[in-house]
Amino acid sequence: MSEILCQWLNQEVKVSQTVSPKSFAKAFSNGYLIGEILHKFELQGDFSEFSESRVSNAKLNNFSRLEPTLHLLGVQFDQNVAHNIITEKPGAATKLLYQLYIVLQKKKKSGLTGVEIQSIQPPANIRQQSMKSEAFRDRLRNLIPRQTDFNLMRVTHRFQEKYKHMKEDLVHMHFEKLQKFQKLKEEQRSFNIEKQCLNRRRQNEIMAKIQAAIIQIPKPASNRTLRALEAQKMMKKKKEAEDVANEIKKFEALIKKDLQAKESASKTSADTAGQTTTDLLNTYSDDDYIKKIQKRLEEDAFAREQREKRRRRLLMDQLIAHEAQEEAYREEQLINRLMRQSQQERRIAVQLMHVRHEKEVLWQNRIFREKQYEERRLKDFQDALDREAALARQAKIDFEEQAIREREIHEQIAVERAQARYRKHYTICAVILDQILDLSTKVADYRMLTNNMIPYKLMHDWKELFFNGKPIYEQASIKHLPAKPSAEQLTELEKRDLLDNNDYEEYKNMIGEWALPEEMVDNIPPSNNNILGHVIHRLVEKSHPPQVKSTIPELPSFAIKGCLLGKTFSGKTTALKALQKDFPIQILSIDTLVQEAIKAFHDKEKISEALPTEKEAEEKTLPVLQEKSKETQDLQNVSSPYPVSEDALPEMKDKIILSTETNKTTKVEEVTSSDSFSELTVRAQLGAKSEKLLKKGKSISDMLLVNILVNAINEIPVDQGWVLDGFPMTLNQAKLLEEALTGCSREVLELEEKKTQISTLAIDPTASKEVPSPPSALDFVMLLDISDNSSLDRMNDTMTEGFSSETSHGDIAQHVTAENQATDEDQNLRDQIQHRIIGFLDNWPLLEQWFTEPENILIKINAEIDKESLCHKVKEMFTTEITKKENKVKKKLEEKEAEKKEEVLLAEPPPPPPEPEKEKETPSKTPPAKGKPPSESLHGKQESLQEGKGKKGSPKGKSPGGKGSVKKSPVDSTDVSPVPVVPPPPKPGSEEWVYVDEPIPEEIPSFLVPYWELIENSYINSIKTVLRHLREEQHSVISYLYEIRTNFQHFLRRPDHKQDFVSQWQADFNALPDDLWDDEETKSELHQRVNDLRDRLWDICDARKEEAEQERQDIINESWLQDSIVIKMNHFFSLMQAELNRFQDTKRLLQDYYRGMEGKIPIDDIKRFTRVPLVQLDNREILESQLRIPLISRISISPDSTMSKPKTKAILKGKIDYSLENVEANFEADEKLLMDTWQQASLAISHMVAAEIHQRLMEEEKENLPADTKERSPQMGTNKKVKKEPPKKKKADKKAKGKSPPMAEVTPVTVTAEEIAQMEKRKELMLKIKEEHLAALQFEEIATQFRLELIKTKALAFLEDLVTKVVDVYKLLEKWLGERYLNEMASVEKLTEVARYHIETSKKIQNELYLSQEDFFINGDVKVFPDPPPPVRPPPVEKEENGTLTIEQLDSLRDQFLDIAPKGIIGHKAFTDILLDLVTLNLGTNNLPSSWMHLTQPELQELTSSLIVNSEFVDWRKFLLVISMPWIIPMEEELLETLQRFKAVDEEQLGTITFEQYMQAGLWFTRDEDTKIPENPLEPLPFNRQEHLIEFFFRLFADHEKDPPQLDYTQMLLYFACHPDAVEGVYRALSVAIGTHVFQPIKTPPVIVEKTSSLTDMSPFEEYPELEGNFVSEEGELREDGERKEENPENVNTEKISMERLLKVFQGGKEVQDPNRFASHLQIENAFSENFVKVFQDLGAKNLEPVEVAILLKHPFIEDLISNNSDYKIPDIKTILQRSEHVQGSDGERTPSRLIEEKK
Questions:
Q1: Helix 1516-1523, helix 1447-1460: angle, nearest 10
Q2: Would residue 1413 be called left, alpha or beta, if left means φ above 0 and alpha means ψ between -120 and 50 degrees?
Q3: Bigger pLDDT: 1050 or 936?
Q4: Are the CB atoms for 728 and 1109 separated by under 8 Å?
Q5: Exposed end of the chain (fewer CB within 10 Å): N or C?
Q6: Is the dihedral angle over the CA atoms 995, 999, 1001, 1006 positive or is it negative?
Q7: Res. 1790: pLDDT tops 70
Q8: Residue 471, SS3?
Q9: In angstroms, how far is CA 555 from the centroid of its own chain?
């Protein structure tokens, strides 16, 4: 099938990528080719959005776009199919493409396009398909990991592969070691086998010999062990010792036998000898002879004895040898006998010996093998231990490195957090600083605007904006707001609302700008209208009843409730475990509870019928959570530490539902798919939801966590306490937990408190009770405080315990597996520790505020201590909290008991009098409000009575109505009846007054409450709008007054033409001829001209004054002041209108309320609202029908009428200004208009109250007429009272426009006594209602009158302040005008005085006279005629001194020599002739100084000989250089520095520079800076010889044939290398040629000091102190060089020098012209070139390559040349000149040389 598909794809469809069966799954894994197929069949319109990339995002995009198209075609395709194709599962892509192939073939036959197929589908299917596509995209996103995860997996896979390779390399190395070890073993084994083979071969040979009857018993194989060898040696020694002992015994036995034989023989011989001697003695008597014979006999006996001994010894040896032979023979015979046995016995013997031998070998081998096995086991065990130790050490090192990295990461995160905190604080401080700057600049601006008198109100508003963090300057205009205002416009609106609220609060509370003035301080400010507040409160309760508090009882009060919080590894679980051992508490860990819930779901834990309490508790907690679920969703999304994806949001509502009853709803039906789910317990259901979220890769929501926790708390017994371990972790969790445990939300309570705190116009004092805050859900919260570093250290310590633990040899495999699991957990913990710490640090400030704000239940414990101390601390704190809890419970019980006692006492009140009982019974008969039983309403009244007694009343204990109610209201007269004397009745609105709370129709609150809200809103908005306009008007007034002042000042400073007249007069004055200055008539004429000028200037000043006065009058006559006063009056009239509107609306509301309570129909008020007229700005006539608000024209007083009226106000003080009288008169008219308007509004209020009272009386008369016909006697008293009342209120009746309804005649009906009593009660109730109504109305009247009076007073003060400010500005303008005029007149007087002074002194006025406006001065910077020109200083001239040639003489000599010998070399004879000609013919030419005139021809020849080069020629440049002295002779370092500067300037390295470059580089000396400029301007400046010398040297050595002239700086510096010492000069020249210092060899003779000293002695140093110092320094330098030469370093003069440079130093290779101009040009070869070639060849440079200087200087020719060369010696010309001067001076003339000698 795959081949068919490939053929279809490649040939028919022609996809972009060739598909083969092998690469089928991979080609279609990203979905691009599928999209291409559909695109070719015109089904995939968005194919351009497809991507060929194989990243996860591209795959997700491609398959998300494919899914709708495939579903449209009917191809089975879901997220599992897509996942299989993406993961390249075999067969998945083939199956999908086969289905697609079939569908596309069908589509091809039908001929339908994709749009047509889609249009066929019904709309419902399309919507369902879009929803499925979204779900498919979300599920596929969950199935396909992100590209970052792929990259991470790829990286981990790469590192795993690397780890595998390393592991394989280690295994391979281990295998090689094993192979080497096995190879060694094999070699040992082969060696042993060869040895065994050899032994077998020997045994076979032995067997062969044995078979051949020759027994050769082979020696047994020596034992290999040391013990065996030692034992063998001991056996051998023992055997030898036994053999020796046996031989000794045999020898002793033989000796004994010998001795016995000898003794027997000696006895016989002695007897025979004695007998013979006696016989012989007897025979022979000669003694000597006898003695000899005896002696011989003794000797013979001794010799015989010795012979006998030797013979016996020999015999013994023979005997022993014979016995040995016999023994050997016997053994041989025995063996032969044994050998002669049968063949079978021999074979058996051999076999036995062989078996014994083999047994011995096997035993030895077994022992050896066991020993090897034991050694191997020990070695393997030791290797394993070493390997484990090495791995542990490496792991420890890795762990320490990881810990260091973790700490560095943590420090980096801490630094980032600190930087973020710093940036946050910096931003806050920057904003505050900007606001401070804005406030400062604003204050500075208004100080300028108000002359340092900023109004208090402006400063107060700015401070309010500053304290509230609002910008002080306007950010954007809010006059024309768009539909979507910008952020700046919103900020401006907030600013405006803030200032409006502040102004309204000041107005309402009568503080600040609206504080009571002194004349109103005595009047008591109106307090709250308690009756109106009660009415409004009752209406609001009727229309908007308060939210019913949850009737669900709270959770049972456990012994102790708390939680333990802290960072990871702070010791929470450890401390709680220790706490659980000592106290009967339950520890709740959220992780454990979630695991148990999931386990319960897996175990199918079902609801048991024996647990009703659990259901009840769950049902109690559910509604609270369900009600608050919507509010908490937003909080969860914000503050949950676990990220909630979009898929989890629709399931949030399902997570709240716990009970089995609520599972029947539609939301649960979406979650639960079977009935078995509802049978599970709540914990199992929560576990199912948690597992569902976790399987999707999402985190468990906070609501679900809290539900699991609450479910676990419900299962704990009531008397047992519980502590939460590490929960809550976020603020959202804490809120949800408190809401679940207490049943109320703190945020909802705060919103209700804010609603109650909103300021209203009337407050009910009896209903203003503060809602007590609910108790906290927890009794305590402990925080184990620990630093981040300690937490990381504890984690590292915990992880290192696994490395330090030792395991036995047998448990290595188990240890490895357990270690792998532990390392995975540790790695997860290591990865999470940073995020956990950061999460805790982010959430803890909010949690800390939550646990400390209403009631501080937070306890902080320092956890950076050891384990035991921490547990001890926690136990102590826990014990303290238990004690506090017990005390709280006891106090609550005592309070409840006291309340019960009070209720019992109140339940038995004293018997009341009969009349109040009747009064209380009457309302009980009325229908109760909104379904309440009569008992509840009575009980509510009693409670209101008791509460009213405990409340405070109005100030000073008086009723708000005051005395006016007694005088005005007719109710008091009706109350007086012939009853027994009783205490005075309570006044309406007081604390003792019982309000009439009769039922009212339901329709009345429904329209009165919105009506009251409309009254409040319109009143507040009107007040705020007016106050805002007043505030803005204050800014405009300040700006206008500042603008007037600045414009008038600019007007006063307008330019005038006085300076033109002054300049013209000064020009005419200075143009007067000099001969007329002293003429009296001329002076008088000039004085007259001055007077004319002064008069003309005074006329200009007067005209300017009149113009300024006219400008001021125009400003005063402007209508701005009148318009602003009108606008402000209209604002205050608007305030009065707001108060009037409020009074009228309140009157109507009270009227409708009390008429509704009386059961009457509300009156439709036909009368229009009373309007306060506004002042008309312009005089345009408008029809009254077009006006909603009446307008009055402003009374303006004409100036003529004001002339005759006296001034009564004290606004204009001091001098009378008639221009301001109009202002004063208009102000009085405005004041009068304001008073009239106020009186009109006040009268309107009084008339409305009177009309209301009259209306009440008319209704009362109407009601009393039918009662008259029924019963006369009871009504007599009341009729009289009614008759007496109308005369008092005649005026009110007249003013009231409405007419009373006609009386209805009623037929007399007989009434029973009960009906009469009921009518009496009804009448008393009506009287009470009337009294309460009128009291409320009169209170409102007093309050409104007070407000109107306050507005009137403030308006007058405001207008007076405005007029005062404007008048002050007008006076200031007049003051400026007068001062300006006086100053201008004074400046004209000063000008006149100056002019008269110059006229009298007959002097011209050279400096300009400046007169502008009020300033006059003589401008010293401007002169009207120029000064005489100063004398021109002559140019500097060089003087001839002491025989030194001037620069001019040197230039003339250079020009002559250059014409004769341009190359610089001239013959010595020609040179002498030229000098002689110059000396003899010097008269009048001044080519040489006078001291040269005395030189004779021999002296000139001597001079020439000192300059000769190469014995024939003279270098005239050297001659000019010598005679140009004195100049500073450079040291060698200075020469080299100058050379480097020249090279730096010579960028192209041509060796030549121009004059500009030469001057830029400079020489070693500069021009003289100490030249003093003479004070006499006619005296020339001193001549700067040094500066001209520097320029002369360039002209001397430059090549002028080129344009521009080029200077060979190396050649020039070679000239300057000359030195008094010739050798030193050569070395200096070499240094210049090479560019570095050349050291003189040590063998070089020291410098001749005599020459230099003689030179110095003979040179005239008195005249040339610079030269003297230079030579002395040079001499010192020479000495130092000499000393330095002695200490030359070893590696010196390593630089190389070429032939060209050497020839340049020694004047080689030049084309020299003959010095005689008539001689022909000759080519003179360098005499040293051939010698230098030989020298270079001698030194090894055959091709004349450069040679080292050190080697070159050692060559004898070079040494000779240096010692004998005098080219670089400075010749002593001064000696010759001094000698000639001396000779000339001997004639009696005082020459300079003689003067020098005299000085000496």
A1: 170
A2: left
A3: 1050
A4: no
A5: C
A6: positive
A7: no
A8: coil
A9: 46
pLDDT at residue 765, as a whole number: 64
Three-state SS at 695: helix
Residue 457 has pLDDT above 50, yes or no: yes
* Range with the poorest average pLDDT among 91-105, 387-401, 472-486, 611-625: 611-625
Query: Which residue would you say has higher pLDDT here, 510 or 557?
Result: 510
What is the rounded CA–CA span in Å between residue 50 and residue 64?
A: 10
Can you tell me which residue has the tokens 């401006």?
492
- In one-letter notation, the amino acid at residue 724 is L
DSSP 648: G
**Judging by beta carbons within 10 Å of its beta carbon (0-12, 13-18, 19+), is residue 1530 exposed, middle or buried?**
buried
- Sheet with 858-862, edge to edge strand ranges: 585-589, 721-725, 561-566, 780-785, 858-862
For the chain, count helices (H), then strands (E): 59, 17
The number of angstroms, rounded, from the C-alpha of 1424 to the middle of its chain's C-alpha atoms is: 68
Where do runs of H (alpha helix) occur along 212-286?
Answer: 226-283
Reference 1295, options 1333, 1260, 1253, 1259; nearest CA is 1253
Angle in degrees, 0-180, between the axes of helices 1468-1480 and 1497-1505, rounded to the nearest 10: 140
Q: How far apart are CA 543 and CA 538, in angstroms?
A: 9
- pLDDT the model gives residue 820: 60
Helix axis angle for 1313-1401 and 1058-1070, nearest 10°, is 10
Most confident of 541-555, 949-963, 1266-1280: 541-555
Q: Per-residue pLDDT averaged across 695-712, rounded?
A: 88
Q: Which segments of 853-963 does DSSP mark as H helices, in order? A: 867-907, 914-925, 934-950
d(CA 1015, CA 941): 29
Give the position of tokens 């000597």: 288
Helix (H) or strand (E) holding 859: strand 858-862
Contacts of 1350 (CB under 8 A, 6+ apart): 510, 514, 516, 520
DSSP symbols for 280-344:
HHHH---HHHHHHHHHHHHHHHHHHHHHHHHHHHHHHHHHHHHHHHHHHHHHHHHHHHHHTS-HH
**Residue 478 contacts residue 1028 (beta carbons within 8 Å):** no
Q: Which amino acid is at 1527?
A: W
Q: Is the pLDDT of residue 977 over 50?
A: no
Q: How many residues does the chain have?
A: 1800
pLDDT tens column, 541-568: 877 765 544 444 443 465 788 898 888 8
CA 1629, 1633, 1634 angle in degrees (round to 5)? 120
pLDDT score recorded for residue 611:
45
| Cα–Cα distance for residue pair 1139/1133, rounded to 1 Å | 10
Residue written as tokens 């079977």?
A: 674
What pLDDT digit, counting tens, does each position of 152-168 carry? 888 888 888 889 999 99
Kindly report which listed range (407-421, 475-489, 810-824, 1010-1024) carries the lowest average pLDDT score: 810-824
Which of 1512, 1505, 1593 has its CA nearest to residue 1772? 1505
HEC string of 1532-1596 equals: HHHHHHHHHHHHHHCCCCCCEECHHHHHHHCCCCCCCCCCCCCCCCCCCCCCCHHHHHHHHHHHH
* 629 within 8 A of 718, measured Cβ to Cβ: no
| pLDDT for residue 1048 | 92
The contacts of residue 1167 (CB under 8 Å, 6+ apart) are 1297, 1298
Number of neighbouring beta carbons within 10 Å of residue 144: 20
Average pLDDT over residues 1102-1122: 90
The pLDDT score that the predictor gives to residue 1708 is 46
Q: What is the pLDDT of residue 1666?
A: 39
